[in-house]
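Ticket 4471: requesting a sanity check on a complex prediction with adenine. Repro inputs:
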Amino acid sequence: MESSLEAGGKPKIMIDRVMGNQVQLEDAVLEQSRPELRPLTFLDYIGQTHVKDNLKVYVGASLQRGQALDHVILHGPPGLGKTTLARIIASELRAPFYETRGPAIDRPGDLAGILTGLQPGSLLFVDEIHRLSVKVEEVLYSAMEDFQLDIVVGQGPSARAMRMPLAPFTLVGATTRLALLSKPLLDRFGIQERLDFYDDQALCEILRRSAGILGIDVTAAGAAEIAARSRGTPRIANRLLKRVWDFALSYGAKQVDRELADRVLHRQGIDASGLDRIDRQILRIVAKQYSGGPVGIEALAATLNEDRATLEEVYEPYLVHQGFLARGPRGRLLTAKGRAHLEILDKSPIGAESAGTHDD
Ligand code: ADE
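Returned structure tokens:
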């Protein structure tokens, strides 16, 4: 149980602060070297305006009525800020925040332990909620709907059905795969919000904010260059900013400008459209081995030697969003834009990659 739940949304090391001086010392070093980039309020949260505005209304209404916020499902590609939003909702509600992941809740008993430990009005965040087992999911239904825990205790002839009241709580589920949620579970989320890729302007703002926190000197053009190559994803933008800053140090540069960003990102195999080696490999495989498609996701994953779920959750959404790839009834197709991108790449050094598998 301990391992599947983190109270207060803080890493375990923070909870262990009471254990003595040595831990405190390590905390101090850790905190210093890893400043918090995640915004803590709606005010500081950039982009996703529609989602944010809706959530502000729901949170405000819940506070005015003095009732627990309806359950929330946040869905969309990885790295767009689902966890961040869940933490912000809790902090705006001034509610205790508990965090766990679908795969960490093995058995109904684990879930019962978590739910009975919640203080009234708590927010329970379950990341990767599509990975809950059917048995655990079934226990969630009455917990979400009536704040009642229906659970079977014991096994065989001595098994007994038990019903326990729960303190009102808000479940915030996050998933990259909404389609994998069962209908009964999805129906119990009164608030359903989809996060979409960020535009370059929002990413630029996020980068300027992160640079300020990290003490990185970045020009407007430098931030724009990183933003344009971050797949519409703040997590990637912040990661690239740090890597470019590392190279700035090694090159003796005092500032991240457009040239430096371009040089480092090119070196990292990220092309002008923000595609990485695997993205390009996907496009090349569809173009060359499947004559532009359609190709089924299973065949594509096998040729690429990549896990199907990773392909569907991580790579494909951005390629489709950017119009390089299309999803047809018979499989994935290379678009005219995808073909044109490959032609440009074939003329540049970054394009010197083959249409083979990872292991090439
Ligand atoms: N850091 C990561 N995501 C962010 C966001 N949406 N707004 C501000 N800072 C962020």
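Notes from triage: Residues 37-39, 44-47, 81, 84, 206, 209, 234 surround adenine (CB under 6 Å). Leaving this open until the requester confirms.
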